[in-house]
Design goal:
The protein has 4 helices and 8 strands. The chain is α+β, with helices and mostly antiparallel strands. The protein has one domain: Alpha-Beta Plaits (2-Layer Sandwich), CATH 3.30.70.560. The strands form 2 sheets. Strands 1, 2, 3, 4, 5 and 8 form a 6-stranded antiparallel sheet that branches. Strands 6-7 form a two-stranded antiparallel sheet.
Length: 153
Amino acid sequence: MNGRAFVGIGANLGDAVATVRQAILDIQRLSGTSVAAASSLYRSQPVDAAGPDFINAVVEIRTRLDPFELLSALQQLEADAGRERPYRNAPRTLDLDLLMHSDVVLQTPRLTLPHPRMRQRAFVLVPLAELAPELVSVHELDAVRDQRIDRLA
């Protein structure tokens, strides 16, 4: 399988800009995976959480990893970056969300594809629309217009 996948990247602890940039490089180095495109970096307020603003991006990748292998690899990158999960929506050094993988639709205790909340989040939809405008409708962007998100220079 040489699938097209999208990964959401976020960080709001430490040097979040450097962390997100490093994550893009780290994803490029995953086995059987290459980054086809990376969005701009964006600053957004936490959604359903407290803490500092997030730095976010989305990458489009090509990968031979199946969705579960890719999820495991992404979770290892989070752990390597010092990600802790003390409670739901806690501030984080690095958050990597598998948004979509090819045309896979699944719902398991470990992984749901497409990501179940991606269509409700400006910090996903705006950078995703930058990379793949055909995947995000004007109506979806309108629905998240009240969520602050700023493109970084």
